[in-house]
Amino acid sequence: MQLSIISYPHPTLRIRSKPIRRVNKELRNIAAQMLDLMYEAEGVGLAANQVNLPIRIFVANPAGERGDGEELVLLNPELQMPKGNVTGQEGCLSLPGIYGQVKRPKSIRLSAFDIQGNPVDRVVDGFLARVIQHENDHLDGVMFFDRMTEEAKREIDDQLHELETVFESKQNTGGIANNEQLIAELDPWYEKYT
Ligand code: ZN
Question: Is 135 noted as a catalytic residue in this protein?
Fold first, then answer.
């Protein structure tokens, strides 16, 4: 099975992914592939929805380089106790070339499991807190521009519309399946992992 990164407005980016009930060799392989894809694309995080999987797992490394910084593989994350606010620039591997300012809590408490099944429970802040919140949003079908101010979003609206037009025209000419079919294709993953 070969994963690849899907781009906005693929409908899997808008679904709420389901908690993972089972970890197996294939899932460990999925996590490894997600890390490969993230580093290849020079990203700092990648969520399951972005590789067309409807399950709650994401990978991250705020340093963006293999062997550098802190590499995280997190399953069934839950974010609590948001504190403070900070505005910073964000981009997304599913929205190549599009960036915007997003205000988020400065620190959050993260509870999750790693790929070995060990519980993770820690307070994170700084850039890592931003990355984790961005990736956790993906698992809920939320894109970073949903959290931008109306004013800031107006500046990227043309770019978003262009991506929508390209995607829809591919669907109209049969190059990409329609949304209903794309969502139906996710069913086997629910059976396997949720
Ligand atoms: Zn993203």
Answer: yes
**Catalytic member of 42, 65, 78, 135:** 135
Instruction: Pick left, alpha or beta for residue 168 (phi over 0 → left; psi -120 to 50 → alpha; otherwise beta).
Output: alpha
User: How far is the centre of ligand 1, averaged over its atoms, from the C-alpha of 123 (Å)?
Assistant: 21
Note whether 144 and 107 are within 8 A (CB): no
* CA of residue 134 to ligand 1 center, whole Å: 6
Per-residue pLDDT tens digits for 99-132: 999 999 999 999 999 999 999 999 999 999 999 9
How far does the centroid of ligand 1 lie from the alpha carbon of residue 45, in Å? Answer: 7
Question: What pLDDT digit, counting tens, does each position of 43-52 carry?
Answer: 999 999 999 9
